[in-house]
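Wait, can you check?
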Amino acid sequence: MSITGSYQNMFRIPELKRRLLFTAMILMVYRLGGHITTPGIDLDAVRQFFEGQKGTLVGLYDLFAGGNLSQATIFSLGIMPYISASIILQLLQAVIPYFEKLAKEGEEGRKKISQYTRMGTLGLALVQSFGISFALEGMGVVQSPGLGFKLITMLTLTTGTMFVMWLGEQITEHGIGNGISLIIFIGIIAHYPTDILNTFQALRTGSLPWFTAVFVVVFMVVIIAAIIAITQGQRRIPVQYAKKIVGRRVYGGANTHIPLRVNTAGVIPIIFAQSIIMFPGTLGAFFQENAFMEALSNMFRPPHPVYIVVYSALIILFTYFYTAVILNPVDLADNMKKNSGFIPGVRPGKKTAEYIDRILTRVTLPGAFFLAAIAVLPDLMIKLLNVPFYFGGTGLLIVIGVGLDTLQQIESHLVMRHYDGFMSKGKLRARR
């Protein structure tokens, strides 16, 4: 069956059709809310300020907020407080026994962690909204500064964040795909029509040669294919489970595998590295009259060699760090031993943990270098080829990763009801 037929089948299944329409409706609500401006702000002055904030921490935050921060909307904080709270909880699970125990308690433990994440989101949103209200007054874009403006801004932005979080949870529960990821996804692709128009404008005016444009299009296709291959790539470690006889029943005896992904950490290492590498540029934007800060800021801006080397090294470092946080070889080995599982040719326990750790270290290396290359790519394309849009980096990884996850869930619905999936051979695999 053709791809067109597969897409038509999505709307022949009542439940899948309902989920798709529900997801589309929620995303439309999110985009509509992104056009409601926060009260008491001069919008033109805010836009002018954000023109000079590209390449700083403020610009990175605006990317995840779907451009709402630069538009000073009620969704200015976006879903970033929730993401920050989720990352903090994940890190706490690796260092605090209480949270580690919760993570191992199954569904009840996950519910408690979700509740802590919501509480953390509320606290971070209150703090960040106060910081934004203070910064807006310092920028001189507030019509009536004072305590009243700060309170209104905190209430508006915090409510907006909690509402966006609720929208994401509704998509996850009643729609298709991961709701939080889809909200970030739709915020990123909302810039694509403008980028396409800017490209055609550059071609029409001659600032972007046709030869360069064709080369860039071919290069984009290759990069997207490479990202899909890295995102889906995995090293499978075979695992066998011994047979156990309990009464008259025989349990176990199955052959399975442990999938170790090339890019286990996802996009998190780039976010961590960007937060650090953009810090000098952010300081330089606030201390423009200081010669030392200006020189430091220029040194950590693309395509300066110091920026490229330090940025790439940070990404590789954080890739290994975050992979170690979310995937513990000792826990994997212990779980296998408890369930009478073993890797053929490897002794259970410590030797199994060392074997998994050795393979994980080797598999993660190409993924880390690839993440570093993808992160540096857009800055080099803009500077060297004069490309009028931002291609690569965090945004592209998120768009492709979320797209693959969503397609995998849709394909699962199709195959479960005896329809052909999107792939004529094989099947799509989710990242998690």
